[in-house]
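I had to read the description of the data format several times before I understood it. For illustration, here is how one protein appears when written out as sequence plus structure tokens:
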Amino acid sequence: MRYFKLLFSRLFLVGLTIVLMFVVDVLIVLSLFYFAEQGFIYFFPNLSGLVRFLFAFLQWFIVAATVLHVVNRDMVPESKIPWILCIVLLNVFGVAIYAVFSNNRPSRRQRRQFALVAEQSRKFMKSTLSEEEAMAQMDRWAFPSRALSRSGNLVFSNTSTEYFPSGESFFPRFLEDLKAAKKYIFMEYFILARGKMWDAIFEVLKEKVKEGVEVRVIYDDIGCMGKLRAGYYKKLRKAGIDCRKFNPFVPIVSNFHNNRDHRKITVIDGVVGYTGGLNLADEYINETHPFGQWKDAAIRLEGEGVKGLLLLFLRLYNIRKKQPEDFSPYFPESYETKEGEGLVQPYGGGPKPLYEKGIAENLYIDILSEAKRYVYIMTPYLIIDYRMREAMLSAAARGVDVRIVVPHIPDKKTAFALTRSNYLALIRGGVKIYEYTPGFIHSKNFLADDDAAVVGTINLDYRSLMHHYENAVFLYQTKANAQLKEDFERTFSESALQTEEDAKKNVVWRGICEIAKVFAPLF
């Protein structure tokens, strides 16, 4: 029965559609060459040998020109090798695959709308703290912060922070804040799934609509595939919630389906904001246990720093409108002064050219470069490129205590195999790797020298760093930093430190993983 349901599920049908459309596109390309060649031979039979030579030369020229295009293209270097292999080994068939799937750019319409929205939001990009004041306070951590600032992500003071080390600790406070909303609730999530968590939230949202609170919800179409039916957004709209599916699936073979909305943002009245790794589904609060104990994290902001999350939401929400709405009703006129708090810098990332290339990865590398004592990392996937690996090894070589916590029970076996394939080089270089033995760790956290931290949605893999719309908060000397450190220390005690001997196990499987790593940037 389970396989029967899967066979007729939307997820299976969408996958089948993509495969069929891809096969059709490739067959069209190959057919053009074949029938063109046969046509020339039919009309010029005496020149058949020359015609075949010319078509062979044309194929060689197309392959060579495509390889040259890959070599000179502005893309992640690790992506070039698999594309070149694909093109050289598969000839024109590989060229067709490259033409269909290598373009990671959003549609022209999305790029045009994003530019309009960015211009509209520019006048709201204000902070009571000037960039010079913020940089002076941050000392050496001003360098990674400045790179974010130049991408339009402001530093805010007057913001209190609270870190939640699990979905169970997060959920009651989250519901409490939703119930306290007076003007609006904006929510943007990769996954919504029917169950205890989402059903409780949905009930609160319906009550708030009746009270006159404006409620907006964005969820990712493919992220929710298999969890919500295709028309679920209509149910929310009937309840008075302005609900939108992000980047809805259409049966066209294109790489723009890779541009998923992986963010997790809630903004309440412009004063309270949440982000982190938590989606709105039961495994995130351990009501279900598909992969053992699910460990995740969230950060709560209250105060001026919420403006950063609000702008991220409004920009994406307005990306499909012909003219962006007026943002001014959603920004409070003033914020309370909060003493004894540090600085926060919410930021977003996404595909080029909407966002600068590598903004999230560059921040992580800058943190590793500036650290003097330690860098602690939690990530569900450790599928890293050369730059990130060298930054980790360089920090460890300077004597920095670099520790990474990854899952022991994986949600995706292929991703887990690729994660483990990075162990040996990192362990030999002095990086400590821990596997969270109770289950699956989904948190995406960095902490360095007590002072600098990142909590958000960004994994250490190619999808998060290249394809997805993501977000996080850079935290400098906030109260959440100490809470995050306590969580790291507790998690280390619950995790198994991996050794070089562990990393060397199963030589055949390691060889398979090394081959898979070559093609990891394509997926």
Remarks:
- The chain has a mean pLDDT of 87.
- Residues 2-101 form one domain.
